[in-house]
Design brief:
By secondary structure, this protein is an alpha/beta fold. The protein is 52% helix and 10% strand. The chain has a 5-stranded parallel sheet, with helices on both faces. The chain has a two-stranded antiparallel ribbon with strand order 3-4.
Length: 402
């Protein structure tokens, strides 16, 4: 196995996900699901593996939706993916050609062309296609849709959220009326927080309450060690047949079990042709965290706050995370409220509590007896970024108890 940071990982090289994949297939026997996961956790590699290796009785299609700008584009992609990947489905194609013809679509050598401008007919297209596709079919039809929240954000920039909620409501209706249709939504931005924003702009409803919610965690330590060891061997950085060593253990621990960072560090060692040692791994991590070029794209965690939380809530999210970046232990609610008040801009409890809940759902924080960053590596980067700037922490309250 070779290091491939950010690249496409072959299904056979996806490490440590077999148990979770088996659990997801069990859920999908009955329900559709939402997969929540932070960037670089490996969710896309995992669902691509599931698409490539479905169980008997399942036909699966994968599509990355991040670049979709309109519901019309999404509807067309569903149709083309279905026809391209689900084999010869003559009845479906015949029904769709008849439907498209009514709206000005044309038949080309036995195939059909969608109308030039679907306009509001995108809803009818999805309903017609999914009904025809699943009717009389014994298999379950499964669409893996990656980065659904980013697509919905694109819609929201156009009209404030009406199209996003309209699509979510339609997909829920299709799940309810088509027993053998399954959908998997994934996203590095929590879809629950996005739906909260839609509610704030006057769009009620809970369009995913029929879907199972599953959080994709980082690799368990034992699997992260196994991945690091396999990559060290594959790059010739360890002698063939040598067992995992302290360098593998440290790399797994210091990267929080995130496959992307493991691949990046091994790739750097391979480029520099260095034997992995604990000292060298620590030095490379520190260099990556301080590098202005941001080779691990950690700035995404900060930059996405305003687009995800909006201009009203985004600045508060940044203030909370700026303060927690300097907390070495769990931070209780009272302490955090005091820290915010000490910056000269106190935050009402009724605003702070939902913000902490949103940041927890969105993978920034974890709650135990208090709150802390979910990923120590991200916290270290956040703190490094603020070093040298005016501290966000009020000096008078730094010793307050939690």
């Amino acid at each position: 196995m070779r290091a491939n940071p950010g690249g496409m990982i072959a299904p056979a090289e996806v490490v440590g996900r077999d148990r979770l994949i088996a659990e997801l297939w069990r859920v999908l026997e009955q329900r559709s699901l939402v997969l929540d996961a932070e960037r670089r956790i490996g969710k896309t590699c995992m669902i691509r593996k599931m698409t490539a290796e479905p169980p008997p009785g399942v036909v699966a299609v994968y599509r990355d939706l991040e670049g979709m700008r309109t519901p019309q584009e999404f509807a067309e992609s569903v149709v083309r993916d279905g026809l391209n990947h689900l084999g010869r489905i003559g009845r479906t194609a015949w029904k769709l050609k008849r439907w498209a013809g009514k709206l000005g679509g044309a038949e080309l050598k036995g195939k059909f062309k969608l109308p030039e401008d679907l306009g509001p007919h995108w809803k009818a297209l999805l309903e017609e296609f999914c009904s025809a596709l699943c009717e009389g079919r014994e298999e379950r039809v499964l669409f893996f849709w990656d980065e659904v929240p980013l697509m919905l954000q694109n819609f929201m920039r156009r009209d404030g959220g009406a199209e996003a909620m309209e699509l979510l409501d339609l997909l829920r209706s299709l799940r309810q009326t088509t027993p053998n249709l399954r959908m998997v939504f994934t996203g590095s931005i929590g879809i629950a927080n996005l739906i909260d924003r839609l509610h704030e702009t006057g769009h009620p409803g809970d369009p995913t309450n029929d879907m199972a919610q599953v959080d994709v965690p980082p690799l368990a330590h034992v699997h992260a060690v196994r991945l690091a060891h396999a990559l060290f061997l594959g790059e010739g950085l360890l002698p063939e047949g040598s067992p995992p060593d302290a360098a593998c253990e440290l790399l797994a621990a210091e990267t929080d079990g995130v496959p992307y960072y493991i691949h990046h560090l091994v790739d750097r060692l391979a480029i520099e042709k260095e034997r992995p040692t604990t000292a060298r791994i620590r030095a490379l991590i520190e260099r990556a965290l301080r590098d202005p070029a941001d080779p691990w794209h950690l700035a995404h965690f900060r930059e996405r706050l305003l687009p995800s939380y909006g201009p009203a809530r985004g600045p508060l999210a940044r203030r909370v995370l700026d303060l927690l970046a300097f907390e070495d232990d769990l931070c209780g609610f009272a302490r955090l409220a005091n820290l915010l008040a000490g910056t000269g801009a106190p935050v009402p409890a009724d605003d702070l509590r939902p913000m902490l809940r949103a940041l927890t759902r969105d993978h920034y924080l974890i709650r135990e007896e208090g709150w802390r960053f979910r990923f120590p590596l991200v916290q270290r980067w956040w703190r490094r970024r603020l070093e040298g700037l005016e501290s966000p922490r009020p000096a008078a309250t730094r010793e307050d108890g939690a």
